[in-house]
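User: Please predict structures.

Assistant: First:
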Amino acid sequence: MNNILLEKHVNTNGSSNIELKKIFQKNQIIEYLYRIGPTSNPEIARYTKMSSPTITKLLQELIDLDIVMDMGIGESIGGRKPNLFGINPNARYVIGIDIDCRMVKLGIFNLANDAVSEIITYFGNVKNKNEMFIELFSQLDKLLATANLDPEKFLGIGVSIPGLINSKTGQTYLDLRIDNQTLPEVFQEKYHLPTVIDSDSRVMAIGEQAFGFAKNKKDVLCLNICDGVGLGMILNGIVYRGKSGLAGEFGHINVVKDGNLCTCGKYGCLETVASGGALIEQAQQGIKKGQESIIKEMVKGNLDDIHVADIIEAVNTGDVFAIEIINKLGHFLGEALASLVHIFNPEMIIVGGKVALAGDYLINPIHNTLNKYTISHIKKDTELVTSFLQDKVKLLGSVAMVMNQVFDESVEEMKFL
């Protein structure tokens, strides 16, 4: 793969060291322009601590490589109008893939983080790995063929996937290995691109940090409520992974003594009472016991066809039963979150995932329960919001995950220059 990637060789040759220094300096400029947007030579100098003549020379070299563009004269903020420089959005591309328990999304994004392809969305069951990956590779092959972009311009592939994921090794604990290879190994072998993989809840946190409410914040908890319940933690500005890369299994803390059996094999986990799966089960049981609800009409009496989206739609139309089970779910979440507020003192809790589309019907009971169970002096500093990125957050997070690796000096195989 020759997309002008940096080869990090330690070299005693003087001229080679000078070239490596230039590459490092160019990477600094590229990262700044990618993250900040079009800006001037003096602003780049303040960030990089390089001299203005050095920056002028490096910018021209990057313009010659078609990576940076001269954007012309910008608005004056006092004094002479600055000349602005920005990233060429189509200098490089990233493939983003969001694998949910029941849905797969994939697309190709440029350096403006805009989709330059169709966003393909289709149903796929992660529990049937062979069938799912055959379809995924077929869809990705079709996407790449239709987009018809220069393969040399691709930086890498980012994959968000549910379950226990060791992001350091690419090992999953859902037995998602193909021919005894990890998923990153499979993608790299098939598409000849560096591939990074992480759990959907951490990818949510990465997406919120790059593009959402967590941008420029230090301590944020990102609650991902889909079929299960996951937690992405941003602590002191860094996405926290833990010793084995497995942190954030919030859904498996015990909240109900002698409760229902969880998918993890334990009893009484939060996931058994406060997840999308639990919500569906409560809707089915309630309607079977005679609860009146438009949900029954929506699925034409077939309760096995109830999905989270049906319950959310019922909630938003004012269905009393649907509102009651969402309220109950929010109460359990609030009780569990109260402990995290006391431990981490976060500045924000972002609630995302399918169930978060219930909006205030979910947020209000969480908020009320937090008020009941948390110390007010700690709680008052914590803002509770739903993600405005909604169902796009993990796809965008998979793109941000690749770009974070691109600019990480410790990662040798995924570089911009």
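Second:
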Amino acid sequence: MIRKWMKSKLVGKMMGGKDLNNPGDMEAAKIKFHAMQDWADTHPEYKEKTWDFNFDENKHADGSYYHFTRCPIESFARKNGFLEVLPVCCDIDYLTTELSHGVLHREQTLATGGEMCDYWIVPDRIKDPI
């Protein structure tokens, strides 16, 4: 159901037709995530209510890599006993990346007991990313 909704025309319009194969769109995505971290850094009163982005531009040659060790969705779900929604939330990351013509490579998530949620996002035209 969520996959069908995410691939609807409405969501496509909301996503803005981004194509991570376009270097400009990939750079815009990086700028957006850095801006989210910059906002969090300048608003320490919300530290426990937002993600702690950690960027590593040297980890992979292709795409963009970041991770976080704090996720407000995961914290809320664990605190309130909504653990069954966590896998769905994590799957949405794959869907939104796919809608932008990217591939999300991930080794772990906080939702599955990992130490972090990692995101290595690569344009979908790159078949063997490094």
